[in-house]
Design goal:
Layout: H1 16-31, E1 38-39, E2 48-49, E3 60-68, H2 72-79, H3 85-97, E4 103-113, H4 118-135, E5 138-146, E6 156-167, E7 182-187, H5 196-204, H6 209-213, E8 215-216, E9 221-222, H7 223-228, H8 235-243, E10 248-253, E11 271-275, H9 289-298, H10 302-305, E12 313-319, H11 324-333, E13 338-346, E14 351-353
Parallel strand pairs: 4-5, 11-14
Antiparallel strand pairs: 1-2, 3-6, 4-6, 7-12, 7-13, 8-9, 10-12, 11-13
Length: 354
C-alpha cells in the first residue's frame, strides 16, 4: 500500500448507499406499526414516545425486555427464509413483559450482518413489523450494522428491545397467586424460538435442503416448514383480555428451559405447580408433532423434554378456581386456545408433574 492508495468505505466492506436503500425499503413496514404516541419518524438519533395519555395512572411503571432469536437463525440462513424471524424476535420480547400485566408500547431492533443486502434486511424488518402489529406496539427505531471481517457475508444476528407500561396497582406476579389457583395453558404454534441447538443437531444436520423441504408423514408437512413456523405472539390479545377485566394473578412465558424452568417463575415460594403432562391433561393439550419428532430423535426423557421445549404451551396463566370459566371465556374470545393444565398446591415454588 502506497501513500497515494485510495481505499473507500465500500472497499473496506461497508456500503453506506446499500444501507440507505435498506432504510427506504423498510419505511412502509415501520409506518404501519405507528401509534399516536410516537413522535417523529425514522432517521433521528433517538426515538421519542409520549406518555401523556397514561397520566391517569396512579403509579405508572415502565417494563422493559430484551432478547434475540438464537440459533434458529442458523436454520433460516441455511434455508434462505428470513421473513418470519422478525416475528420470533418480537414475540420473545413482548411476551416477556406482558406477564407483569404490561401493555407493550414500542420496540427497537438491532441487526448485525456480515454483508448488507437491502432486500434481505427488508425481509427481516417486515417480520419485525408484522410482530409489532400483532402485539400493538410501535416499531420506533433500530440499527443495521455491517460487520465485514467479523461475520461471514451471509451471517446475521438480531436483537430486540421492548418497553411497556402498567399501573403498579395492576401489576401481576407471584405475590397474587394462591393455593388452589388454576393453571391455564395457551397453545403454542410449535417449537417457537428455544431449543434450536438441539433441533439442529437431531433434525437438521446431515440433511440436504431438498430433504428438509420434502413432506414428512408424521409431521404432515416438511421439516423446513415445521422448524421455521414463527413464534406465537400472545401479548396483544392478552392486553385485551386484561382490559376486559380478566382476574388473572400471574403469567409465565414458556421459553428456554421449557415448562419446568419457566412456570416456577410465576409461583410464590410456598406453592408448587401440579401439572398434568400434555396428552394426559385432556384432549385440548396437544404436543405439536415437530416437538414429538425432536424429542424422539434426541431420545429425551419426559423430564428432559419438559425442560427443553414448550411441549405445546407458549404461555401459562394462573387465576382463582372460581374465576376459571370467566378467564377461559375471555381467552377464547381472543382465539388464544386455552386449556386447564394443572393447579397450585402447597410446596416449595417448583413445577411438579402428576
Amino acid at each position: 500500500m502506497t501513500a497515494n492508495t485510495h481505499i473507500s468505505y465500500v472497499d473496506a466492506g461497508v456500503d453506506v448507499d446499500e444501507g440507505a436503500r435498506a432504510v427506504d425499503l423498510i419505511k412502509k413496514d415501520v409506518a404501519r406499526t405507528t401509534r399516536p404516541e410516537v413522535i417523529g419518524g425514522l432517521g433521528g438519533f433517538g426515538s421519542c414516545f409520549s406518555l401523556k395519555s397514561y397520566k391517569s395512572m396512579d403509579d405508572p411503571v415502565l417494563v422493559s425486555g430484551t432478547d434475540g432469536v438464537g440459533t434458529k437463525l442458523a436454520i433460516a440462513q441455511l434455508l434462505d427464509r428470513h421473513d418470519t424471524v422478525g416475528q420470533d424476535l418480537v414475540a420473545m420480547c413482548v411476551d416477556d413483559i406482558v406477564p407483569l400485566g404490561a401493555e407493550p408500547l414500542f420496540f427497537l431492533d438491532y441487526i448485525a450482518i456480515g454483508k448488507l443486502k437491502a432486500e434481505h434486511v427488508a425481509q427481516i424488518v417486515k417480520g419485525i413489523a408484522d410482530g409489532c402489529a400483532m402485539s400493538g406496539c410501535a416499531l420506533v427505531g433500530g440499527e443495521m450494522a455491517e460487520h465485514p471481517g467479523v461475520m461471514k457475508p451471509t451471517d446475521y444476528d438480531v436483537a430486540g428491545f421492548a418497553v411497556g407500561i402498567v399501573d403498579r396497582a395492576k401489576m401481576l406476579g407471584p405475590a397474587l397467586v394462591q393455593d388452589g389457583d388454576i393453571i391455564i395453558g395457551l397453545t403454542s404454534s410449535g417449537i417457537h424460538s428455544n431449543g434450536y441447538s438441539l433441533v439442529r443437531k437431531v433434525a437438521i444436520e446431515g440433511k440436504s435442503i431438498e430433504e428438509l423441504e420434502q413432506p414428512v408423514a408424521e409431521l404432515g408437512e416438511s421439516l423446513a416448514d415445521a422448524v421455521m413456523r414463527p413464534t406465537t405472539i400472545y401479548a396483544g390479545k392478552l392486553v385485551e383480555v386484561l382490559r376486559a377485566g380478566a382476574p388473572i394473578h400471574a403469567m409465565a412465558h414458556i421459553t428456554g428451559g421449557g415448562i419446568t424452568e419457566n412456570l416456577n417463575r410465576a409461583l410464590p415460594s410456598n406453592l408448587n405447580a401440579l401439572v398434568n403432562r400434555g396428552g394426559e391433561a385432556g384432549p385440548d393439550w396437544n404436543v405439536p408433532p415437530i416437538i414429538t419428532y425432536c424429542v424422539k430423535a434426541a431420545g429425551l426423557t419426559l423430564e428432559e423434554a419438559y425442560r427443553t421445549f414448550n411441549m405445546g404451551v407458549g404461555m401459562s396463566l394462573l387465576c382463582a378456581e372460581r374465576d376459571k370459566d370467566k378467564v377461559i371465556d375471555l381467552l377464547n374470545k381472543e382465539e388464544l386456545h386455552p386449556f386447564v393444565m394443572g393447579k397450585c398446591v402447597p410446596g416449595e415454588g417448583k413445577v411438579v408433574y402428576r
